[in-house]
User: Fold this.
Amino acid sequence: MSSTRRERVLLAAVIYVVLLAQVLLYPGLGRLVATLGATTDLQPRMWFLGAEFGAFILFVGVWGAVSDATGRRVPWIVVGALGGAVGYGILALLPRLSLASFETVLILRVVQGAATIGAFSLAITMLMDLDGGHGRNMGAAGIAIGLGTAMGAPIGGQLTELSPVAPLYAATVLLAAVGLLVTLVEDRAPQGRRSTREALATIRRTPTLSIPYAFGMIDRMTAGFFALVGVAYFESAFDLSPGESGIMLALFFAPFALLQYPMGALSDRIGRTIPIVVGSSLYGLGIAAIGLVERVEFAGAGMVVIGVLGALLAPATMALVTDVANDIDRGTAMAGFNLFGSVGFFAGFLLGGVIADAYSYPLAFLVVGGLEVLIAIVTLPAFLKLGLGDVPTVTAGSSD
Assistant:
């Protein structure tokens, strides 16, 4: 195995573990927040998720800017992973220490989220630093994200059956392992120290980054939507247990994960426009349809279909960030992408939860799916006019 491929695999493993740890909590979220001092209602779940993703939004840009300014990635990933492990571990211990006021839990979630997002975002940035084709590298990131989420859902559901805090203990071990694993990867960050302020000016200097950022935000909105509203919908409409709900999420994330790398390589050959614009449109329509079905078998089939479509658009969207950004600005550029993605995830469970609670689940599915279609329609002229979907010859032709 070549050095590039070996490092691609190792970095994908880091991303996979971070996502696995995060998603372990989702299927049993109701039981977990009850154990940590709240109720099983939808609102405490929203706050529990919101605290982490609020920290993602606030701190992801800081990690990227500091990485670009110092010309280092690996030490910051180690700090973020170990900090996240400590955060998960303390959360797991709170019930035993009789300190599980929900306010304390939310504060710890902010700290844990602030650390974890550094490991996640900078691991993706290290993939951007590799040769071998942006689509392939982002496909590796995508398959890691998809596999982590696909496996995290059913495993987390089964762990919850053992104990509501078992996923927290598992997340602690996983993130500690990430802190060790990433030290095996060469730090290829472009050299040249800059101030953090100069690094943060990246987005202003490159306005075309707003296009992949917009898609990243809407795509992650759907993930946030399914993490909260989707699970609640499956439990309510089809009377599923946490373990069964985890399997429903896995029906989406299994094809989403397994097809990421080939779909990313495809976008290196045919460009980004078709995978992003067409994939996003069909993906949104599929989401809207799932909220209308009346049998669990049809809902499961719909999850598989949108998993395939999500795999078509996700790596192409991340690769577009790499296409547009300058080499020295990659950390900040990807941090910006993850910042918008975190905003989207937060909006997904917040918007979806409010609509589902006030009106109905089908309307929530329709609104979220409709936003995915809308962003494709609005941005199509920019793709065609600016040639954003064109792949640089050197990137598309690389075969490492």
